[in-house]
Each structure stands twice: as structure tokens, then as C-alpha cells.
Amino acid sequence: MPLTPNLHAALIDITRTAARDQIMPRFRTLTPEDISTKSSPEDLVTQADLAAEAQIARACRALFPDALIIGEEAVENDPSLLAGLAGAARAVIIDPVDGTSNFAQGLATFGVILAVVEHGETIFGLLYDPVLDDWVMAHKGGGAWYCREGAAPRQLGPWPARPAERACGYLSLALFAPDKRAAVAATFPPYARLNTLGCSCHEYRQMALGHAQFMVSPMTKPWDHAAGALIVEECGGQVLNGRGQRWTPATPVAPITARSHHEQAAPILP
To answer: What domains are defined for the chain?
Structure first.
């Protein structure tokens, strides 16, 4: 079954509904009992993550009965789910609350990421902001678009390359092992600004909107990057893996480097 515009609209509606039902009622109302840790004290999961993923997964299974459904929290419980991604005829990848630490601290920089992958290639990507109820989306070969209720979609990109001294981007030292941080920090000059939002959803949105020129990360989980990588490419940019090859969910070799233009300067990690 081809992924038609009607199915795009259904996926967007599924995401918006889950955010309205499960995420926004819990924003700034979480109790300590609603927050747990996973791999480290900084790696959080909340009841909003769990409830939103469950609702989105149920709806996606009803929409695509034969698809592999991969949610971030489901993989936490069953890592073997990822093994089927590269060969799946269709998979739906869900990050129910990207930027969970921000969400748990009451910061509005979080989002929902959803991607549809076929045979290891992302064909649809959605970066949704539950707070403002707007989204950036792309389907393969169809461009990237900024959308909100009541307004015509606005196509995004292409964006020109900027010289390094005028380029801004995202790179988080906290994601690197402590013994590597000094060497990574040494790559920061001569860029105008290096920052982190603690949220892949909004970092990719900022790139798509032309406000940032690159993003570099040692973490290449598909729920963080599959949708955003497609959107950057549909804006005319480039996303590479650690071997210098085009990044896809089937080739997630670290680090990942997203650039708004193929000639855009970006930090080269040691």
C-alpha cells in the first residue's frame, strides 16, 4: 500500500491526538512518581512518554497492520526490535517525547518524532511541536514543509552554505565520554555558535527553518534521526554517517553529521 497524502494526514492526526491526550495534560504537572530513569540518572522516561507511545503505536498498528512498530520505550524493553528495521518492508518509528529531560523540567523544548521507513529508507518524517501544535514534515521526493492549522503549508529550503565564522549548529559535549570532551571542544572554533537544545526534534526543525547550519551527534538512534535526516535532505542538505556515507536508519554508524548544504562547514569529530 503506497504511503498516500491521506495516510500522511492520518499519521499527523494520530500524533496530534496523542499529544493532546497524553502529553500536554502532563506538561508541568508531573509528580516525582511520574518520572523514572533508564540507562543513567540523566536518561529519563515519564508517564507521558509511555502513554503517548502506547497510543501512537496502537493507532499505527490499526493503520498499517503488517508494519513493524518501533517505539523508543518499546526498544528499551526489547532491544531486538531494532534488528528487523533494515529489512522491514515498512516500519514506523516513534519517539513519543523527544527532549524528555526538558519536558520533565517544565521546559517547552520537546516534541514528537515519527518516521516511516521502507527497506531501510525513510520515506516520511514528522517533527511535531505539541506546545504550539505545528509541525515540519517531509515525504521522500516531495520536499520539506512547515505546517500549522489554518495556514497554507510553507516549503522549506534550499538554504545556502555559510562560512564557518557565520555558521551556527548543535553539538552536545554531554553526549561524549568525559575523556573525549576536551578534544571535541577543540573542534568548536571557528564557528559562530555551537549549542544544544537537548532535543533532536527542535534541532532538526531549526535546521529545516534555516536557523542552524549543522548538527553533529555521537548518538544515532533511529527515533532521534530518521525523520530529521529525511527533512534535511528534502531541504537540499546532506546527512552523513561516521564512514562519510549517506546516513540511513540501516547505516547508523556514529557519528551523524547533518549539514544544511553539501558544502557547509561543520565540526569534524576526533
So the answer is: 5-156 (3.30.540.10), 164-259 (3.40.190.80)
